[in-house]
Amino acid sequence: MTEIIRINTDNNKDVIKKCADAIKGGGTVVFPTETVYGLGADAFNPEACKKIFIAKNRPADNPLIVHISNMAMLDDVAYIEDDLREKMKHIWPSPLTLLLKKKKSVPDIVSAGLDTVCIRFPDNPIALALIDESGPIAAPSANISTRPSIVDSVTAIKELNGRVDIIIDAGRVKYGVESTIIDCTVKPYRLLRAGAFTVEDIETMIGPVYVDPLARGYSQSKVALTPGLKYRHYAPSKKLFLIEDENKFREFISSDLASNFLILCSEENSQYARGKALILGRDIYEIAHNLFYDFRVLDSSDKKYGVIQSFPEEGIGFAVMNRIRKASFLIIKDKDNIDKINKVLNEA
Ligand code: AMP
Ligand code: MG
C-alpha cells in the first residue's frame, strides 16, 4: 500500500517526520527535487536500496545517486579534494552532481560495485528537510526505467502507486531535466551527463570540463559515459521523430503526413503546423520544464506519432537536446532527407 501525502505549509513538519521515519525504517519514498521527482531509500541500508531497483525495474548495474543536505554528510560518504570542497560550499545546493571516490559506508548496491559514488545536494526545501531528518538518501529519478523522468505529482502517483511506501505530492518541479553529473576523479573533470546546471557555469565556477561528443545524446553507444547511459532513456511509448534542420521541420509539419503526428515545437514554428501543435515553451527554461511532461501528453494523445524540432545547444539547451535525442526513435540530421520518416513508417 502506498500512502500519498499532499504537502503544504501547515503539515510540512509532520509529513517530513513521517517520511524520514519511513526511510529510516527501510522504506521507499518518492520526493520532489528541483530537477525531477526522486525515488529514495536509506543510502546505508542495502535491503532498502534494493527496493528502489525493484520498484523501478532498474538494472542492477546502474548505480544510484546519494543525496545529502550538508557538507558533513558528504564526508560520511565520499572523499573530496579540499579546494573542490571549498568551492562546492558556495555552489551547493544546486543541480550539480559530483562523481567522487566512495567511502566504505556506501553499500555496493548503491554504487553498482564501483569504487565511486555520485553525490548530489538538491536545491529543494522538501528534499533538504527530509534528508536532514533521515540522513543520506540514495535515489535515482522516480520514473520506471526507460520512461521519461517524472516532473509532476499526478504522473508520480499514476506510475508508482503500489510500488513504493510513500509518495509526497508537491506538484510540479522547477527545472524538469535531471542534474548535471561531472566526474571529479579525473583531471580535467569530465561531463558524464548534461543537465540543469549548465556546463558554462561549471567552467566559470570550478574550472575546465571535458565534454565528450557523446554527451550530445547521439547513438546508444556501447562506450557509455556513465553506466546508466547505455540503456534506452527518457522515451515516450509512442515513436518520436526529431527533425534537426528547421526548414525541413517546417516543411514536414505543414505536409499532409503530419496529420498523424503530435507536433512538439516552439510558438514560432506552431504556425506552420498542419496537425495539432503542442507548444513546448517560450524560452529554453520553459521548454526544459515542459519536455518530459509533454512526452507523456504525446503518449495519452490521439496521435500515432510525435515529431519534435531541435533547439540551440547552449546553456540548459545542451541538456534539452541530449534528452530529445535519447528519447527519439529516429533522428533526421541536417544532411538527411525527411523521406526517411516515411520509409521507417512503411517498414514498421
Ligand atoms: P538517475 O538514474 O536517473 O538519476 O541517474 C543516476 C545517474 O547517475 C545514472 O546515469 C548513473 O549511471 C549515474 N551514476 C551514479 N553513480 C555512478 C557512478 N559511480 N559512476 C558513474 N555514474 C554513476
Ligand atoms: Mg533516470
Write the layout of secondary structure elements.
Elements: E1 3-6, H1 12-24, E2 29-31, E3 38-42, H2 46-56, E4 65-67, H3 71-77, E5 78-79, H4 82-91, E6 94-102, H5 108-111, E7 116-121, H6 125-134, E8 137-139, H7 153-160, E9 166-169, E10 180-183, E11 189-193, H8 199-206, E12 209-210, E13 240-243, H9 246-253, E14 261-265, H10 267-270, E15 276-279, H11 284-300, E16 305-309, H12 317-327, E17 330-332, H13 339-347
Helix pairs in contact: 1-6, 11-12
Residues 140-141, 149 line the site of magnesium ion (MG).
Structure description:
The chain is 34% helix and 20% strand. Strand 11 (189-193), helix 8 and strand 12 (209-210) form a beta-alpha-beta unit. 47% of the residues are buried. Strands 1, 2, 3, 4, 5, 6, 7, 8, 9, 10, 11 and 12 form a twelve-stranded mixed sheet that branches. The model has no long low-confidence stretch (mean pLDDT 95). It folds into two domains: 3-216, DHBP synthase (Alpha-Beta Complex), CATH 3.90.870; 240-347, Threonylcarbamoyl-AMP synthase, C-terminal domain (Rossmann fold, 3-Layer(aba) Sandwich). The chain is globular, with a radius of gyration of 20 Å. The protein has helices at residues 12-24, 46-56, 71-77, 82-91, 108-111, 125-134, 153-160, 199-206, 246-253, 267-270, 284-300, 317-327, 339-347; strands spanning 3-6, 29-31, 38-42, 65-67, 78-79, 94-102, 116-121, 137-139, 166-169, 180-183, 189-193, 209-210, 240-243, 261-265, 276-279, 305-309, 330-332. With 348 residues, the protein is of the alpha/beta class. The longest helix is centred in the C-terminal third of the chain and has 17 residues, at 284-300. The structure holds adenosine monophosphate and magnesium ion (MG).
